[in-house]
What we know:
The protein has about 130 residues and is mostly helical. It has a 3-stranded antiparallel sheet with strand order 1-2-3. The two termini are about 40 Å apart. The longest helix is centred in the middle third of the chain and has 19 residues, at about 60-80. The protein contains 4 helices and 3 strands, in the order H-E-E-E-H-H-H. The protein has helices spanning about 10-25, 60-80, 85-100, 105-115, and strands spanning about 45, 50, 55-60. The relative contact order is 0.10.
Amino acid sequence: DDFFFFFDDKRQLTKWRERIAAFLLGLRLHLNDGKSRVRQVKEGVEFLGFVVLPAQLRLNQTSVRRQRRRLRLLRHSYADGSMTLPAINSSLRAWNAHAATGTTWQLRLEVARRAVFTRAPLEQSNTLPV
Length: 130
């Protein structure tokens, strides 16, 4: 249900957008006005949790926040004994594989640095240790 058009002429892109909107209206569908707009490629396009830029593929902020929250929950689950290291390892590997698609080396290093798991009770802070 997501699609992109790339073209050098902004007026032509605007015409295509209008025609697509009219077509969808006939199907009782509509474009998302907040996401559907003509923009320059250098602004980046959000797609599948990434921001696609001409020379970079970065994780969007929602995905980064979600992973930080998930890491905190994993740490607490391990500390209280409700989760095992193999299960945590599996979760972290899956996220790392997804993130590795983009230009995320520094972010993945930060997550790995914060991924310290102990069975001792953890602080109830909303922040992760540095």
